């Protein structure tokens, strides 16, 4: 294959990546302007943080082996602290950090 053919494939691949990346970055802004004030966007903004927390919960608890007492105590109290903190402050970052700190401290030093 000729050198110019290889170069053209590379340039075509780069151009395609640029166009797709730009389109993916611009699309949410275009959709938001059309959906501004709609019930769908308001519901999405209301439920998305809780949905992200639920997905994180399922992902984190999926790999836990609940056989040993030390694991049960550390993860159980970490989960409880996360839930209580989130219900108390309604701050996802604070609740995740608080639960993680409790779980790591218990798993490392106490249990």
What does this protein look like?
With 111 residues, this protein is mainly alpha-helical. Helix content is 87%, strand content 0%. It has four helices and no strands. It is flat and about 65 Å long. The model has no long low-confidence stretch (mean pLDDT 86).
Primary descriptors:
4 helices; mainly alpha; 0% strand; 111 residues
Which value, in Å, is the CA radius of gyration?
23 Å
Q: What share of the residues lie within helices?
A: over 70%
Alpha plus pi helix count: 4
Structural class based on helices, strands and sheet pairing: mainly alpha
Oligomer kind: single chain
Shape: flat
> Roughly what is the average pLDDT, rounded to an integer?
86
- Strand composition percent: under 5%
Which helices and strands occur, and which strands form pairs?
Blueprint: H1 3-35, H2 39-62, H3 69-89, H4 92-110
Helix pairs in contact: 3-4
Short note summarizing the structure:
This protein is an all-alpha fold and 111 residues long.
């Amino acid at each position: 294959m000729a050198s110019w053919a290889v170069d053209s494939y590379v340039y075509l691949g780069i151009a395609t990546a640029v166009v797709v990346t730009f389109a993916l970055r611009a699309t949410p802004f275009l959709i938001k302007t059309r959906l501004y004030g709609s019930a769908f966007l308001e519901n999405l903004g209301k439920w998305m943080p809780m949905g992200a927390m639920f997905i994180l919960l399922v992902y984190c608890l999926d790999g836990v082996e609940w056989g040993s007492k030390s694991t049960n105590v550390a993860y159980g109290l970490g989960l409880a602290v996360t839930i209580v903190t989130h219900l108390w402050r309604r701050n996802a970052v604070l609740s995740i950090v608080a639960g993680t700190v409790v779980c790591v401290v218990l798993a490392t030093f106490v249990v």
